[in-house]
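Ticket #335: bound-state structure for manganese (II) ion.
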Amino acid sequence: MIDFQSALALIKSAPRILFTTHARPDGDALGCLGALESGIHAVHTPVQTQLLLLTPCPDHYRFLLGQDPWVMGQNLTEEQVKTGRLDEFDLIIVADTAAKRQLPGIGDYLTARKTGVLVFDHHLSHDSIGAVRVIDTSAAAAGEIVFALFQAGGWPIGPFIADALFTAIATDTGWFRFENVHTDTLTIAGQLIACGARPDVLYRRLFQEFPPERLKLQARMVETLELHENNRLAVMHITNDMLRETGARRSYIENFVNEPMQIGAVEAVLLLVEQEDATTRASLRSRCNLDVNAVAQVFGGGGHARAAGVTLNEKLPIAREILLAAMKAALVEKQ
Ligand SMILES: [Mn+2]
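RESOLUTION: The complex was predicted; output attached.
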């Protein structure tokens, strides 16, 4: 059982609260922010709240947020953060990460700030961010931890919050398909449905309302598929040209990495995505005992044992060779 008393006391004592999460926010990150921001208003008045995203909110997740978020570089600059702009907030709540590298623009500020930072996270790798940290690496999603906070505080969960937390948990578990699903995951999901979450509506909204450009980009990515190590390791890539030629948005790439898992022999996947600044972002997945968090950490990335990410300061072909070699070595090692 997690002790939420310090977290609840910290929230109660804060008249102005800022909520933030990792760059390239996913369903768990945004579901937690939406639920927390809305939930706090219901139990703790008057309170001023502000959401801050470090990269923009993907359109298909916008419904999870009750208010327009600030976006780093648009409503707030790194310079303003450095000169103390965020000191006006009594509390900064960070959800779904505690890793500095995932908090571009505010990581240093959060590390230096010794009071008024509260973290809810479920990742293996983290830095010393947060005066109060609620970290449970056994939770399938940060949304499970936030749900437990609502319960510990006796906070009401209406349909908006139920949808947000259901989305957080459902997206981080691949809609309840991944190994991280445990009994509590489904119990909590059931309780959220009882509070008004609508799984059918959410599924359609999250996965079946994309424009054609997304499928066109996916087709281009699938054309790059290569299989190594007796089909156990799948490698794919996406270039800036592919994004431009298909007209697809970068945010559509989320979840593409799982496509090769429909091949029975595939145990691990490496997806490389060329970035606008010509560096390379890689997503690593595993469904065997290969620990992709360990592989990613060698290059300054991280995540979970079965799902991790890393950015290499290399052009795509070089990054591909480096990470392919590392994945092959890890796969052979774990045989
Ligand atoms: Mn998460």
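RESOLUTION NOTES: The chain has a mean pLDDT of 96.
TICKET STATUS: resolved
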